[in-house]
Amino acid sequence: MFFIYLIITAAVLGMVVWCFITERDWRKQICAGMVIIPLLLRVLLIK
After folding, report:
1. What is the pTM of this model?
2. SS (H, E, C) the chain
3. Which one of 1, 7, 27, 40 is most buried, by most CB atoms within 10 A?
4. Distance from CA of residue 31 to its chain's centroid?
5. Any idea where the domains of the chain sit in the sequence?
6. What is the pLDDT of residues 4-38, one digit of tens each?
């Protein structure tokens, strides 16, 4: 079950990073950056 959680979290992280890279509006990039940080910490198992 734990590995499924990591896979789902990594997939969501990948989608948010993709949106961060392709987005032109700086406000949306800041919002995506704020979402990337906790997801990255979860994937790296830092709580």
Report:
1. 0.86
2. CHHHHHHHHHHHHHHHHHHHHHCCCHHHHHHHHHHHHHHHHHHCCCC
3. 40
4. 11
5. 2-43
6. 999 999 999 999 999 999 999 999 999 999 999 99
**Which whole-number Å values give the CA distances from 28 to 13, 21, 25, 39, 41, in the listed order?**
15, 10, 6, 17, 20
Nearest to 37 by CA among 18, 17, 15, 23: 17
**Within 10 Å of residue 22's Cβ, how many Cβ atoms?**
9
Q: 45 is written with which tokens?
A: 């198992």
